[in-house]
Amino acid sequence: MRRALDTCRTPEALCASAILVRMEAAPVTDETLMRRYVAGDVAAFEALYSRHESPLWRYLLRYGGQRAEAEELMQEVWFSVAREAAGFDPARKFTTWLYAIARHRAIDRHRIARRTDSLEKPEEWADPFSPSPPQEAEQAQQGQAILAALERLPPEQREVFVLQAESGLSVEEIAEVTGTSFETAKSRLRYARDKLKALLRDYA
């Protein structure tokens, strides 16, 4: 029996086996997970949440500056994802769709009640996923300097910079999320980077 199996291990068979292993090991795309969720696979939604929870949280936190507000927005965004899942276009990138929802929810909330003290409590800006211990005071100081510098950017520049930094969206995708042209998004991102470099020169 073993000899019969050995005769099947031709170069072609070994190559096909390797391809199958790679295919099985390839990560499932967000768009595939969305299709599975729409078909009734709840675990697919949990996988999407786990995959995007941290960057989306940081985006919402830095968009508004308040931890409590970011927590509420997180719930609203994921409720919207679940509610609108059936209308998701699989040909569209999931992250672009997700951050467009997040942006709209944040804008709606700010229109209803604008915060006036979003910069009065710098501790609210601390990244909950990367707390700095006391012995890393210098890193914490640098982190606060970065956040303070971000706040000094014009809102439209800060938005595109944070979108790219936290979500990894391309300039084309950022333009789609923000409803602007490619050139506008590109120029805002360039201006944001240039200003941040100037503001953070001491920490370079």
| Level-1 CATH class name of the largest domain | Mainly Alpha
In whole angstroms, the N-to-C terminal distance is 66 Å
Percentage of β-strand residues: under 5%
CATH topology of the largest domain: Rna Polymerase Sigma Factor, Chain: A
| Helical run tally | 10
Uncertain runs? 1-9, 11-24, 115-136
**Structural class, judged by helices and strands?**
mainly alpha
Topology:
Elements: H1 2-7, H2 11-25, H3 30-38, H4 42-64, H5 67-84, H6 94-112, H7 137-151, H8 155-167, H9 171-178, H10 182-199
Helix pairs in contact: 3-4, 4-5, 4-6, 4-8, 5-6, 6-9, 8-10, 9-10
Task: For this entry, give a set of tags.
204 residues, mainly alpha, Rna Polymerase Sigma Factor, Chain: A, Arc Repressor Mutant, subunit A, 2 domains, globular
Plain-language structure description:
The chain is mainly α and 204 residues long. α4 packs across α6 (94-112), α5 crosses α6 (94-112) and α8 (155-167) crosses α10. Helices cover 71% and strands 0% of the residues.
